[in-house]
Input
Amino acid sequence: MIKNPKIKEKSIFALLLLINVAFILPSNGQDKYTIEPDNSAITCSVGYLVATKLKGEFKDFSGVIHYNPKDITKSSVFIKIKTASIETKKPFINRLIRSKRMLNSKLHPEITFAGKSVTQKKGKYYIKGILDLHGIKQEVSFAFTIKEFAEKKSRISHLISKGSCFVNRKKFKVVWSKLFDKGGLLVRNNILIQWNITAVPEK
Output
């Protein structure tokens, strides 16, 4: 038997209020920003033969940045890239990269990066996270910059983040040629990934 039903009603109301507040307020002071593909670029390049570079650009990607303007080290990012969207200036290279020999776009349609740990060293920011490439997950870390832009002092209109990192393709079992890929003589092992990302507040 409930002696005082009003007390129980107040307790239920307080619990519901706490749940609603938990969903409304951003965790760790983070605000959510959505990456704008039309105003962003993710590119890659790798050394080829002696003094040549193969360059490509991913045309289809998306992601979000959970940004804490008061403490950037409490920020995080998630990016998703469609492997079949790689474009170079040579159609046969596009087909090769997307094929089973390399990225295998049909079996592994996406590359993802989930960066959850940001540190600051000597004035530079570094993000650490899990790169899921070719069905293999590896922890990677790299430097980046991020700038705030505001139309009004009270609100950030957009963020711009730039950075680059080297990824050893052999660690992700991305093989150019089983016959000629010994020691990275034909194609270098390290792929340079660069990005210039614009993100806007989620509506």
User: Anything to note?
Assistant: The helical segments are 5-24, 91-98. The chain has one domain: 29-201. The mean pLDDT is 82. The longest strand covers residues 187-201.
